[in-house]
Amino acid sequence: MRRLRRTEAIRALVRETHLHPGALIYPLFLCPGEGVRKPIGSMPGVFNLSLDEAVKEAEQCAMLGIGGLLLFGLPAEKDEQATGAWADDGIVQTALREFKKNRKLDPLVMMADVCLCEYTSHGHCGVVARDGDHYHVENDASVALLARTAASLAKAGADIVAPSDMMDGRVAAMREALDAGGLEQTPILSYASKFASAFYGPFREAADSAPQFGDRRSYQMDGANLREAMREIELDLAEGADMLLMKPAMPYLDVIHMARERFDLPMGAYQVSGEYSMLHAAFERGWLEPERTMMESLTSIRRAGADFIVTYFAKDAAKVLG
Q1: What is the largest CA-CA distance in the chain?
Q2: Measured between alpha carbons, how far is residue 71 from residues 82, 215, 286, 291 in Å?
Q3: pLDDT truncated to tens, each residue of the chain (322 aa)?
Q4: Which of 38, 194, 315, 319 is catalytic?
Q5: What DSSP assignment string belongs to 206-249?
Q6: Which residues, at least 6 apart from 119, have a Cβ–Cβ distance to it below 8 Å?
Q7: Which SS3 state, helix, strand or coil, does residue 104 take?
Q8: For residue 283, what are the CA distances in angstroms to 19, 40, 276, 291, 312?
Q9: CA dist list (Å): 192 to 221, 265, 309
Q10: Residue partners of 130: CB distance under 8 A and separation at least 6
Q11: Domains of the chain by range and CATH?
Q12: Is 315 a residue of the active site?
């Protein structure tokens, strides 16, 4: 077996799994203001960006050959109905219109995350009903707002809408809303199996979206359940999902692999904030070699079956890949 490992040229020739910049998606966190480039403490190299700064970041991504952006918004104000998520002048809607005017950004696929957690005053991914000290997230009322949000984002210029809320029936409602609005060509990238994970911690700092009470285990998936993940995917496909996104990535490579074996749709995986931050913590201590570890982590996700990867390493990896 070592004959085919003897030189780098031979190793490259017989390599089974390949990465390229076009298969990487870079998340952007958009915030109000001008000239804002606020570092996210738990995510080295990642920032909350005002629109003018986000344009600069997007242009760099386009020059590096990155496949696209996944957009998140931090509104100036929040309320219980997540008004900023579906408002025509919402922060992501405004950014999408500006991005679409910029010809330098034409190579980038603009994906818009569809969720309410960044926009609700309580930080949950849907409408909350309270009964004294008890609360629950109302599925159908949340789905109505999510569908409205998806249509608003697509109208503003999103190439793909990506629901991450994990409400039941959201894909069908979004498809209906998009079609009714003349947006039948907009694909839905469903976070079809999004697990209730400890690895989201740094993201909640970045997006200011931590729940003010309780947790999200009643709607995000139990990390112990592989068969249930397949059922979630099947339901989303039946409702009209065009693409799949698995989240998180490295702790759930088995889920990515099983989904790839069973389903033929384009599928991505999200290397989430906690995966990125824990690797950076090791880099800063000199425990791991940054470039080699970054590329190995991305290769593992690709090898498991992901066609594309949402990752905060996208720019650094694209520079390595040339």
Answers
A1: 70
A2: 17, 24, 32, 26
A3: 999 999 999 999 999 999 999 999 999 999 999 999 999 999 999 999 999 999 999 999 999 999 999 999 999 999 888 999 999 999 999 999 999 999 999 999 999 999 998 899 887 888 888 777 777 889 999 999 999 999 999 999 999 999 999 999 999 999 999 999 999 999 999 999 999 999 998 887 776 667 767 677 888 999 999 999 999 999 999 999 999 999 999 999 999 999 999 999 999 999 999 999 999 999 999 999 999 999 999 999 999 999 999 999 999 999 999 8
A4: 194
A5: HTT---SSS-STTTSBPTT-HHHHHHHHHHHHHHT--EEEEESS
A6: 73, 75, 78, 79, 82, 83, 84, 85
A7: helix
A8: 22, 17, 11, 9, 15
A9: 10, 12, 15
A10: none
A11: 20-321 (3.20.20.70)
A12: no
On the 0-12 / 13-18 / 19+ scale of CB atoms within 10 A, 15 is exposed
Cα angle, residue 112 at apex, residues 22 and 205 outer, rounded to 5°: 100
Strand 127-131 with 134-138, pairing? antiparallel
- What does 29-42 look like in DSSP terms, one character per residue? EE-SSSS-EEE-TT
Residue type, position 213, single letter: F
Residues in the chain: 322
Number of Cβ within 10 Å of residue 193's Cβ equals 26
Question: Which residues, in sequence order, are bridge partners of residue 162?
Answer: 113
